[in-house]
Specification:
About 70% of the residues lie in helices and about 5% in strands. It is mainly alpha-helical. Among the domains are: about 80 residues, no CATH class; about 230 residues, MetI-like (MetI-like fold, Orthogonal Bundle). The strands form 2 sheets. Strands 1-2-3 form a 3-stranded antiparallel beta sheet. Strands 4-5 form a two-stranded antiparallel sheet. α10 packs parallel to α14. The chain is globular and about 100 Å long.
Length: about 525
């Protein structure tokens, strides 16, 4: 066989093996680093603990990382996410969600500390399971008071009988054990609060300026511009990605976090609850529970809703009738009754076999995991109904009819033609349902069928604050703190969901194009 001299032979791709080798080297390096960290913590008397929900959260983060790595290599998948990042509200809300996610992930790395032991004894570990967040908040986590104290107070919230010099007794507001203990008397209280808050605000501004400068330098290098020019373009909004929204949100977050962190060293910033626990610590610990409920529940409902919804719309006939009967029956039963019955059965199993759970944290974590499963299995009907209607419409379009005429199997038609065309509905529904699941946990814990009472969550905080609101004087700060954190989390999730809907919904894009 002769070859035309003018014909260019295909070049062998030498980059693929190199890229594969780099990926393998990175994977081996990550495994080696993880093994080294594991050995270090074991040698230093720390026993790592991997809860079920921790493993699922890390798995979800890995899947999300792989998904976005795949999206970067495909322009048609990258375009909708570029529209999301071009929205100021969407990017600002994503910054807030990233801060919540960072706190939640820090609370997902658990461990147990080795107890003091004598020579020759086998190592024993504390039954208390701590997290990295507990270590970071150790300054105010273990500083408990006797009972209630109002935010930033240095004296108890109610009068107590105290012993005076000379053996006399009096009813007065005693000094707190930790709150304001560095002050000599009440006259220094206001001045110390002001100076500490200003110092924290100044440190926050310096840190924000450092972060903003690094971000501006990175953007300037990527665009090939001068740093001063890039700084002006960012604050004038003359960039494709609205970095001004990110820096503005970061400025607000730093302005709040700086004084709070500075004041937390000497005061209970959000007060204490009935048993003297710091409310700020309880609020931070509740973030993990809300994120787990919101994310893991979607992992449960997603395969059920997608498979049954598309199958009902495409296959029709008795399959459609059977699936409609199932979700109509589920919708006719109050979801609270189904969830309550399922949670009580799980709790009965946990109580019957306590030896299966070495620590209280593992027992509470199992109940949280089953609550996610139960919520997912009772919440898939709405998404399935949406996908059924979309599949009914898609099966009549020309490209599906052509695939059927060429003898393409049903499974391949569903996976190659129907599923990609309904993913925008799936993604929009999941992002918008996140806030609903966060609120569901609070409502279920309020009525006593949510998370384990020993687990800290916004629902248990609200449930505990219910009785506090009826006492005199009224204790309002625990409820206000839970409401504020939930409000910010749900508002950020809803704003991000709106940005995702506008970017992925074809009808919105068609309407903008015609306008």
């Amino acid at each position: 066989m002769s070859i035309d001299p003018g014909t260019e032979l295909p070049k062998k791709d030498t980059q693929a093996p190199a890229n594969r080798a780099v990926r393998i080297a990175i994977a081996i390096g990550c495994v080696a680093i993880a093994a080294a960290l594991w050995a270090v913590v074991r040698v230093n008397g720390i026993l790592p603990v991997l809860l079920w929900t921790d493993a699922l959260v890390f798995l979800l983060l890995t899947v999300l990382g792989g998904y976005f790595a795949y999206v970067r290599r495909h322009g048609h998948l990258r375009a909708p996410w570029q529209r999301v990042t071009s929205s100021g509200a969407g990017l600002g809300s994503l910054t807030v969600l990233a801060a919540f996610l960072l706190i939640g992930v820090a609370d997902c790395v658990h461990y147990r500390v080795m107890l003091p032991q004598k020579a020759g004894e086998a190592p024993a570990y504390s039954p208390e399971v701590l997290s990295v967040l507990d270590a970071l908040t150790s300054r105010f986590r273990a500083r408990s008071e006797r009972t209630y104290s109002s935010p930033l107070a240095m004296r108890a919230y109610s009068r107590e009988t105290v012993e005076l010099p000379g053996g006399r007794q009096a009813r007065e507001f005693p000094r707190l054990v930790f709150g304001g203990k560095h002050l000599k008397d009440d006259s220094e209280h206001s001045r110390d609060l002001t100076i500490t808050a200003v110092r924290g605000l100044a440190m926050a501004f310096v840190l924000w300026w450092f972060v903003a400068s690094l971000a501006t330098l990175a953007i300037a290098r990527s665009e090939g511009r001068r740093t001063a020019e890039t700084w002006g373009r960012i604050w004038s909004g003359d960039t494709r990605v609205p970095w001004v929204a990110v820096l503005g949100v970061l400025a607000v977050m730093f302005a709040i976090a700086g004084p709070v962190i500075a004041l937390a060293g000497g005061y209970h910033v959000l007060g204490t609850d009935k048993v003297g626990q710091d409310v700020l610590y309880l609020s931070l610990k509740s973030i993990r529970t809300s994120l787990v409920i919101g994310t893991l529940t979607t992992l449960v409902l997603l395969p059920v809703a997608v498979s049954l919804g598309i199958a009902a719309g495409y296959l029709k006939g008795w399959v459609d009738d059977a699936i409609q009967y199932v979700y109509t029956t589920l919708n006719s039963i109050p979801s609270v009754l189904l969830i309550a019955a399922s949670v009580l059965m799980v709790q009965g199993y946990i109580d019957a076999d306590p030896e299966l759970f070495p620590t209280a944290a593992q027992r509470a974590d199992l109940r949280l995991l089953f609550l996610c499963v139960i919520l997912g299995l009772t919440s898939w009907t709405g998404l399935a109904r949406l996908l059924r209607g979309e599949a009914l419409k898609l099966r009549e379009l020309e490209f599906v009819q052509a695939a059927q005429a060429f003898g393409v199997g049903r499974g391949r038609i569903i996976s190659r033609h129907l599923l990609p065309n309904v993913m925008h509905i799936v993604l929009i529904s999941l992002v918008m349902d996140f806030s609903g699941f966060v609120l569901a946990e609070a409502a279920l814990s309020y009525v006593g069928v949510g998370v384990d009472p020993s687990m800290i969550s916004f629902g248990t905080m609200i449930n505990a604050a219910r009785l506090e609101m009826a006492r005199e004087p009224m204790v309002w700060w625990a409820l206000a703190a839970a409401f504020a954190f939930m409000f910010v989390l749900v508002l950020a999730a809803n704003l991000f969901a709106d940005a995702v809907r506008d970017a992925f919904d074809p009808r919105v894009q068609i309407g903008r194009g015609s306008a």
